[in-house]
Amino acid sequence: MRRRSMLLAAGTAALGSRLGGRAFAAPGGGPLLDHDTPVDLDGTEYVDLSDRVGALAPLVTGTVLVTFRTTSHNEAMTLFSASDPTVPSSNITLNLSRGALRFSARNKGTVLIDVVTRTRYDDGLPHTVAVTVGPSGTRLHAGGRMVFETARRAFLGDVPGLGAMALGRNLDSDHPGGEWFCTGTIERAAVWDRVLGESELVAQSPRPDPADLGRISVILNSDTPATWVLTGDSITHGALHTDGWRSYPEHWTERVRWELGKPKNRDFVIDTGVSGATSAELVAGFAERVAAFSPEVVSIMIGTNDIATPGLGPEAYRANLVSLVRSVRALPGSPVPVLQSPNPVDPAKWPGRVGLSRYAQVMGEVAAQQNAVFVDHHTDWTGDGQVPLALLNDGLHPNNRGHHRLALKMIKDLRVFDRDSRVCSLRVP
Prior knowledge:
Blueprint (H helix, E strand, L loop, with lengths): L11 H7 L14 E3 L3 E4 L4 E2 L4 H4 L5 E9 L5 E8 L7 E7 L2 E8 L2 E11 L6 E8 L2 E6 L2 E6 L13 E4 L2 E3 L2 E5 L3 E10 L5 H6 L7 H11 L5 E6 L1 H4 L10 H12 L8 E4 L7 H6 L1 H4 L7 E5 L12 H17 L5 E5 L15 H14 L3 E3 L1 H5 L18 H14 L16
Parallel strand pairs: 16-17, 16-18, 18-19, 19-20
Antiparallel strand pairs: 1-15, 2-15, 3-12, 4-9, 4-15, 5-6, 5-12, 6-7, 7-8, 9-10, 10-11, 13-14
């Protein structure tokens, strides 16, 4: 049974001690602090660890790691905080800011460091995030993978007077009752006096992210321009069946090139989908449809025509997908491949393509074997066992609603969903 820590007028230090889990380990090895008792927080509660802040306050390098799951979309939610409660704005916090991962340190209002990702983690799924601070700078991690880095650095020892430490809230003199309360479950929080490497962070993550998802997050969180190639068949092409509305590549373009706020909107999204294309044709035309654009990320949605083409059964399809993934990785800079399954079709209108579920399954298997990111539209559309015909124009091609659904799945799986964005909140009539 999970134990809970309530904000009380007195006795919070003792309460924090009771919920401490494992306490201290030898420096240079295990964590100095390891709170591994899961706690459910309702937005007014927190775990007080102030009786342990003294041992951590001198650290100028180290790692803070938190495993959590949100149950709301608060503007700000503290995961870990250490602060001077006698003055305003002297704290070091690892928190969520509108779902984005944020690490900041302030000394009496002076900002020592304040970094925030564009990727988001308030989706109700379990995440393990970490900040590491060392001689080379500050890095943010999710699922064991680095998602952001900067040469700037500040850690606990750079904020004088630390006297309060908590999970689920921040405390200072301007907010004696606390602020930035978390709503959700914090499963674990740990602090080391050293920088953990990727293999260690992966080992500390109950559900590690694919390495390629981390690489995509770095691209999204970086201000360095990137080129995205989205290739496939008529569904990626997006012609005709959207009735003038945006296709899923166009929704992705708006989300990445405008809404994420990357400088000068210099990420480029190139759609090389060709109506009627098969995986074999994409393999044959790889140079002109993918390699020619020197991409950083390549999305491949293919298969709808394979099932209706002699000689392109599931195993030939599998071989072509493996070839495509390997060809993407072999390009200069080793771009990141993303596999996106074809959507299901109306079985009454397209009985010859009902077996697309097998092709989606094969794509998922290839993604797992090749350690590639997989966006499974087929399962997303058929979660209730039925094909959502309202998302299809002719029973095969997605209509305007269907393309928005494809875009939302891609946006969520690549962790840039924001319910307040115009793309994500669009209501298609």
